[in-house]
Amino acid sequence: MNLGLKDRVALVAASSQGIGRATAEAFAAEGCRVAMCARNQQTLQAAAEKIRKRHNVDVLAEAFDVTNASAVSRFVASVANKFGGIDVCVTNAGGPPAKGFLAATLEDWQRALELNFLSTVYFARDVIPHMQRKRWGRIITITSITTKQPVTDLVLSNAVRAGVVGLVKSLANEFGKDGILVNNVGPGFTATDRLKELAVSRSSASGKTEQEIFDGWAADAPLKRLGEPREVAETIVWLASESASYITGQTILVDGGMYKGL
Ligand code: NAD
């Protein structure tokens, strides 16, 4: 299948590891020029260097925090300047801490809003004018299965990510006329460092071992295993491609069938 992505410019936020990194690599494998960011300069540069060498594509990588609106603006401007535009923007960030409602502080709520909602707004505001100029664009948000089915002890994610879905649907409605498609991808339990953190916190709360926690998550999915970052990444690349040219405003779960609703 020709995905039609060669030489497109793909910006992938929070991409030094995990799902973000796998996504940056999957775009590079399609011949895209790739822009990456994350907070840790060293890890980010190491990831960028590997992707550059393995796929022989241009990679721009800058370290900053995606909750900093002016840093996002500077980054988007430098990507557009270096590559002559931005075709694809994948928004991503770390996940909020695992907490129940009464354990979550007001600072936790503020931080989750900044990390998982406002960072998406910052990227969208800055990339849309570039996409409008070319009358072609793809914005894909990485959220979670929690957009469809709340997960115990992830009240911050359960609540805040729903706002991202509202934003995705609104942007899809407003900018479809400009050739900009906006979709959301919700990973289920996927083998990354984030999931290890979650297993540690569940293990200390329940007395179960971390392995038992992982096994329980795998058993809950009809496919009886955790997801791989690559599997989420490849769905994102397909959504950005010409093969998905009539899909906008949707949430696609990559969860091994974990979501139990219709
Ligand atoms: P991860 O912790 O492995 O990687 C997160 C990446 O984001 C890293 O590159 C990190 O450096 C970067 N990052 C974190 N905070 C940042 C910030 N403020 N500014 C810039 N960069 C930042 O996480 P992951 O498992 O790849 O998850 C990615 C997203 O998907 C998260 O929002 C997570 O909650 C969500 N998600 C993950 C799973 C899963 O099972 N792994 C399931 C559902 C949803």
Please provide a written account of the structure.
This protein is of the alpha/beta class. It folds into two domains: 9-188 and 228-252, NAD(P)-binding Rossmann-like Domain (Rossmann fold, 3-Layer(aba) Sandwich), CATH 3.40.50; 191-226, no CATH class. Helix content is 49%, strand content 14%. The chain contains eight helices and seven strands. It has a seven-stranded parallel beta sheet, with helices on both faces. Helix 5 (155-175) links the parallel strand 5 (137-142) and strand 6. The longest helix has 29 residues, at 106-134. The mean pLDDT is 97. Nicotinamide-adenine-dinucleotide (NAD) is lined by residues 14-20, 38-40, 65-67, 92-95, 115, 142, 144-145, 187, 189-190, 192-195.
